[in-house]
Amino acid sequence: xxxRVLVFLMWLNHVIAxxxxxxxxxxxxxxxxxxxxxxxETSLLNQYLISYHWAMANFxxxxxxxxxxxxxxxxxxxxxxxxxxxxxxxxSSITTIMTRLEIAAAQDAKRxxxxxxxxxxxxxxxxxxxxxxxxxxxAIQMLKKDKPNLEVLTxxxxxxxxxxxxxxxxxxxxxxxxxxxxxRSCTTMMxxxxxxxxxxxxxxxxxxxxxxxxxxx
Length: 217
Fold this sequence. Notes:
The chain has helices at residues 2-26, 33-36, 44-57, 70-121, 126-145, 150-153, 158-173, 177-185, 187-196. By secondary structure, the chain is mostly helical. It is elongated and about 90 Å long.
């Protein structure tokens, strides 16, 4: 989310910079900022960088380039107002994102610390304790990626959840020839298999999935 905000801000500055240059380059006024600051004959890259710098200055800071005619003045006023609104939104969004990250990190740290205390109190061997902690950290990361909005998903109708589970799980099962045949010949049955007969187990590197002689569950 933070990356999206930053990318949007960079793109918006690019659009404003191009528009600021276009106002000066295409206007009918005899004097514009390109002439005032002797950049009309410089390279296009230099003109773009100056325009981009001016665009960023509308969000924070100052810039030595100023409007030189009425069209540039109007554009600068509009851009300053838009920059104020966008800057307020960006600061609010970043603050919200950072707060959520801190809360999530604190919750994860608390759970891992509680697990560590349990392992120490139970006198678990260091080798097994490391494996348990590694798996717990892996499970926490995977749960963040896998169905991050579980509370929302419980609100949707049962038929939609069946369709959702089918599209999530069917490609994995279809890699096996038997389930691939079922997917093609009996889609209804496969929908129910994907919805009711699958349970995900979170494993990290080195974990044992099953042992010899263990009955299936």
